[in-house]
Structure formats: structure tokens, C-alpha cells
Amino acid sequence: MAEAEAEDLDALLHDLDFLPGHFHLQLPLNLEPRSPAPLRARDLRLQLDGLRQEVRRAASGQRLALRHLLGTFAFYLEELDEARECFLEVAARDPGNLNAWANLAHVYGRLGQEDEEDTCAGRLPSLMGLAADPEASGDPRLRAARCLAEQGYAHGFDVGCAGPEERARVLAAGIALYDKALSYGQQIPMEEKRGWYFTMATLFIRLDGIFLELDSEEQKRLPAFNRTLALLRQVLKSSDPHHRALAWCYLGILLERKDTFSTTPMGVHDCGYSGTDPLDCFGKAIEIAKDQPVILNRLAKIFHFLGKQDMAIGTCNMALDVLRDPELNWQAYYTRAKIHIRVYLHHLERAKLGLGSMPDRNHLACAKADLEEVVKVCPGLKTYLDMGQVYYYMGVDAVQELLAVDESALDQALVFLAKAGESELGATLPELQLLRGKCLRIKGEEANAAACFKRAVELDAAGSGHAEGFGCLLEALLAQWSQAQLSDSELGRQVDAWLRCAQGKYPAAGLCQELQRVWRGHTDEVLGLARALVAQGRLALVRLLFETMERDVEGTGARRGCRAFSF
């Protein structure tokens, strides 16, 4: 009897326009992992930690959707009890939540608790209006609409995308689910719909950013661009100041992007934004949020991401004027510290390229002061890693990073990196290993530095755009060789092995860029390495070196990218 009912239910679900739950969605998260298990677990853990912070700040209408995500990530981290508790909490707050019962059934199935699994799955037909005599009150179409909106929301937080094309596919799928939710939810309260419009606009803006990155044709971008403007016009009518402030900010972003089209998109005129200055939009966003630190902090992060660092610091200062207590507003201190770090690194890169003056080291002092406030009330991996980065740059010469100017600062950097590495997650971050290796290299510990750089290369994901770990490893091996700590044959063997590893990790352009940097800074050692490799018949690196030298002579070398210490 039970088997027959299960078969009937399966047949019924097969004919449905949608299925509740998150575990069947076509997200890379739900597909066969592409990366090794430890690296996948690291990415999931980072996302999970970020979501926990997000839940505390999220608008009320988004909290259930975020709880679903917390449960889904916990499930894939094999933290099944936490996953179950997340879904149970959603079901307790919203007994008609379709995704909660479908997700619970999936978790109970993994736990081997068949009775509980059947109970949860058995609630779905009634809630969806499929039972002959449904027990649940309310409109099944509204429950379906909210189910689809929660699924669409999940598409903004996926991990494991192989590249921008796949990210674009995932975002487009999320938008399509929201469209379907709107078709089901015509009776959804308008304020709740505006929350959906806000998330849709967020997904559209991210999608447009990917189209810009891929240099897509205007006609591919234009319909989504115009629709985003229309969505934001609706969000600006919201009673929620968080949505209104961010909608003005997003509108400013779009109006800045209108110049990337050959002709102003008609959506700008249709929505009444002809002649509207993007700076006025940003100003209105700040005005709405002026006495609300949580919204100001979110705006500051967006301005930081957009490269508007002066505006970002000003917004952080406003948040701290409203609430200075680090225990209650550590996010403002943290964001301001990240801005100072980014400004310093930006000016440092320009100075190295001969495009500007030396960076102002006062940015490092300001970042250190803000991070010290954060460490007091919210110590953790991210803060320790950032403190290590600040102390590293305080301890080295601004341009010649191999020269120490403050040994005590380098020691402090290593102390904070050790604290960061104490956590299971910290030990899996290539950024941490890279920075630790740099500190040890300056202190003359080339063998220890090389071990850190090797670990950084191992931990980098395939397709990573940051090949700096391999370049630093090559420098450390050359230093050991020049000090007679490595023989010609051992140097050749290690370089050959790690080159093969790097070629499987990094794009060819990034790898050549690092080789170019190394041979420019260590020309004699690189020529000696090339002779040793030729004598041993190991020609792979020699060929790459010749290609790199040719590109350098032609002046086509790309700018070296900075590895971001941001999660």
C-alpha cells in the first residue's frame, strides 16, 4: 500500500510545473563536485559563515530564504543535525512552507529516518492543493509562489561555478524562478513583491556585470538592463528603508553603466531618469540610511566594491558617528580597514608600474587601528588574516618587498597568521600560505618559505587567476639554489614538477605574467636555471621563458594582479 502511494506521488510530482525543495535545483552545488573534497568543503564553509552573518542583517522577508540556504550548505558539509534544525525552524515559523517540508524529507532520507521522511513528504500534496481533500487552509498558489521565490533567491549564493558563463546561467535561472513566482503570486502583498523585485534587480545587476566582463553585445544586455530599471522604480516605492536605500544605490550603478551603450537605453527615459546624475542617486541612498548603521555599512561595502573609496570611507564614518561602540558596530570598523588596505595596495601597484608616487603608509596605520578594534570584540579568521597582511606591508619596503624595514612588524604578521591557521578553515586558504611564505622569505628562511608557497599552489583552485604562489615558489627555489642548498638536479626536478602542477591550475597568460616578473627581478639566476634545465633535458619551462621574453620585448606584458584577501 505504502509503495503504491509513493508511486502515485512520484507520478504526480513528475507532472508538476515545479518541485519544492532546494536539492533538485540545477545548481553546481547540487551537481557532482568538480574540485577536490577539501577545497569544496572550504568554499562551502566560507559561504556558510558569510550566510550566518547575512541572516542577522537581512530584511525580514529574506530570513526564511536564508535559513534554507544555511540548511543546504550544512547538509553538504555533512552537518545534518544543523541542516535539520534550520529547516525545522522554517517550518515552525511558516507551517505552510513547501521548501521546508521537501528539504526536511531529503535530510531525513539521508539520516535513514524513513518514518519522518514519509511524514514530511506526505504533507506536500495537501499544502500544494493536490490532495483530494486538502487539510491545509490558504491559497496553494501563494505557497507555490513563495516556494519559487525562495528557490530563485538561492541562485544568488551558489558555489562551484566553473566560470563567468556558468555564473550567468545560474543567475538567469534564478531570475526565471522569480518570474514564475510572480505568475503564481498575483495576490501576494505588494510590499512582499517589492522585496522580490529588489532581489531580481540584484541578480540582474550581477548578470549585467558578467555580460560586461565577457564583452557581450549590446542587444544581449539591453532588455535586462531596461527591465532592471523598471524593477528598481517599483522598489523605490517600498516602505522598507533598506530596500529603498539600496535601490537608489543600484540605480546609480545602472546610470553609470548607461554610458557603456552606444545609445542611452530607452528604459532610462521610460522610467523618468533622463538627466538623473548617478551621484544624486548615491546621495539619496545615503540620506535615507543616515541614522541606520546597518544600511550605511551595506552601502559602504557596495561603494568599496565599486572603487568609490572616498565615498565608502565617508559612509563608514557616518555609521560610526551614529554607533561608535565596536561591539555593536564592528562591521563599520572592519569595512573601513578593508578600504584602507585596498587603497594602499592600489597605489602600491601603480607605483611599481611607474604610474604614480609611493603609497601613503598612513593607510596601513589606519587599517591597523580599525582592525585592533575588531579583534577585541570579534576575533576570527578573517580579522587575523587581515591583521597579518597589514603587518606584512608595514614590515617590508614598499617597492622592494624582499627588503625588511621593520622586523617586529614581520614577527607580528607571523603571529596573526599562526592564529588564523589554527582554524581548520584557515589551514586551507592559499592566501594565508602565500603571505606566511613571503614573511619567512624576507627573514631568510627560504626552505620554510618554499614549503608555504608549495602549499599555496596546492590549495589554489583550478582556473585561479592568481599565479603569484608559483612565482614566489620559483624565487624561493632559486634562492636556495644560489645558496647551494639545492643541487642542479634537485632544482630541475622540483621546478619541472611544480611547473606541471601550475599549468594544471592557472591560465597560461597568468603563468607567463609571473614568469616575466621573476626573470625581470632575477635575470642571472633564471638564466642559470635555464642552462641547468637544458642540460637535464627538461625544456618545458625553458620554452615558456622564451615565450615570456618575447612578449616582454613586444611590450605586451599584462599588469600583475593583486590577490584579494576578501571572502
Structure description:
With 567 residues, the protein is an all-alpha fold. The chain is built from 26 helices and no strands. The longest helix is centred in the middle third of the chain and has 27 residues. The chain is globular. The two termini are 51 Å apart.
Question: How many beta strands in the DSSP annotation?
Answer: 0
- The best one-word shape is globular
| Strand coverage percent | under 5%
Helix fraction by DSSP (H/I, runs of at least 4)? over 70%
> What summary fits the major beta sheet?
none
Rg, Cα atoms, Å: 27 Å
Task: Indicate the low-confidence ranges by residue numbers.
Answer: 555-567
Order of helices and strands: HHHHHHHHHHHHHHHHHHHHHHHHHH
Q: Kindly, what is the distance between the CA atoms of the first and last residues, rounded to a whole number of angstroms?
A: 51 Å
DSSP summary: helix tally: 26
- Class inferred from helices and paired strands: mainly alpha
In round numbers, the mean pLDDT is 88
Present the secondary structure layout.
Blueprint: H1 2-14, H2 37-57, H3 63-76, H4 80-93, H5 98-111, H6 114-127, H7 140-154, H8 164-184, H9 190-213, H10 218-235, H11 241-257, H12 266-270, H13 278-288, H14 293-306, H15 309-322, H16 326-352, H17 362-377, H18 381-395, H19 407-421, H20 430-442, H21 446-459, H22 468-482, H23 488-503, H24 508-521, H25 523-536, H26 540-554
Helix pairs in contact: 2-3, 3-4, 3-7, 4-5, 5-6, 7-8, 8-9, 9-10, 9-11, 10-11, 11-13, 11-14, 14-15, 14-16, 15-16, 16-17, 17-18, 18-19, 18-20, 19-20, 20-21, 20-22, 21-22, 22-23, 22-24, 23-25, 24-25, 24-26
